[in-house]
Amino acid sequence: MVAKKAYPLRINEEILSAMQRWSDDELRSLNAQIEYVLRDALRKSGRTKPKPIEAIVDPKS
Q1: What is the DSSP track for 3-60?
Q2: Angstrom distances, CA of residue 20 to CA of 2, 11, 15, 29
Q3: Which of 5, 11, 25, 27 matches a 20 to 30 Å C-alpha distance to 17?
């Protein structure tokens, strides 16, 4: 599990309102939506490491 750190964020009121509407549409909290958008932008720009592919293990074997 990745540790989370609190960070105060100053944000334009219109952007915050738009993010709130988007998070409502996606059934996410505003915080989770902001984190999702940031993570997606980092991934698309190549600024994060790709997650390693985990093997699927059959519990019956």
Answers
A1: ----------HHHHHHHHHHHHHTT--HHHHHHHHHHHHHHHTT-SPPPPPPPP--TT
A2: 24, 12, 9, 8
A3: 5
Backbone angles phi, psi at 53, to 5 degrees: -80, 125
d(CA 26, CA 11): 20
Structure tokens at 47: 């600024």
Cα 3 from chain centroid (whole Å): 14
pLDDT-flagged residues of the chain (< 50): none
Q: Kindly state the DSSP code that residue 2 receives in the 8-state scheme.
A: -
- Quickly count: other Cβ atoms within 10 Å of residue 20's Cβ: 14
